[in-house]
Design a protein that fits this description.
Length: about 150
Amino acid sequence: MPDPTDKLLGCTCFKLRKLTRSMSRIYDQHLATVGLKTTQYSLLTNAAREALPVAELADRLGTERTTLTRNLKPLIEAQWVTLEAGADSRQRIVTITPSGRAKVEEAFVAWRAAQSALEDLLGHDAVRSLHAQLDATLIQLTPLIEDLQHAHPD
């Protein structure tokens, strides 16, 4: 029989999604000054680190390939990234362009402003602690996520 005090915890998924939406609004507001959304900035910064196949970038970002492909379209149209041919004909490599690198540099200032506002509000130690808890939780969830992926492959 479940412990009746468990009801007091509420739904962790709902709480995290609510927090994520709130955080995204803060970062999106800052990044809007340079014409980007948080998801676009994240894609650009990851593409700037190294050219990666779509599947590998999706895995790194923790998103579905189809979602990543949809999110890449406006970045491709803006000529900030390209999809280059990979080792085999089915593979596409996400590659940042020189104008994409310039956009990352421009957007970093807006991202830094959002990050600083958050750190000022919550405190640097609290943000560091939040990051550590999130990283630890993601590591702990890895076996469950891998099990789900094996049960329902793409």
